[in-house]
């Protein structure tokens, strides 16, 4: 994994207003529903959803903008590039999924 590629990818994705809106819409409502239903069922698919939102179009956007030609002119292997993108998406998705589950547990515990 290339940490520079991973950090740049995370920064690029977190600067997109549409993506941040999707994160909020996928993050907050299941927590509220878990608090109302007193069940963790609404937050079970959280990590996979966040990883999907984060990595959707990850390589296609770079391909259409011409970044790949510039990137591969440097000593970066294609597998390193792709695995860095996927690993970052999975890591962010897992982190947000854990945070969402913890907040849902706190909401359930708050209801008694």
At a glance:
The protein is mostly helical. The protein is built from 6 helices and no strands.
List keywords for this structure.
0% strand; 112 residues; mainly alpha
Outline the fold blueprint.
Elements: H1 3-14, H2 17-37, H3 46-55, H4 58-65, H5 67-71, H6 78-111
Helix pairs in contact: 1-6, 2-3, 2-6, 3-6
CA(first)-CA(last) distance: 44 Å
Instruction: Report mean pLDDT, rounded to a whole number.
Output: 87
Global geometry: elongated
- Uncertain segments of ≥5 residues (pLDDT<50)? none
The residue fraction in helices comes out at over 70%
Tell how many strands the DSSP assignment holds. Answer: 0
**Class inferred from helices and paired strands:** mainly alpha
Q: Number of helix segments?
A: 6
What do you see in this structure?
The chain has 112 residues and is an all-alpha fold. It is built from six helices and no strands. It has helices at 3-14, 17-37, 46-55, 58-65, 67-71, 78-111. The model has no long low-confidence stretch (mean pLDDT 87).
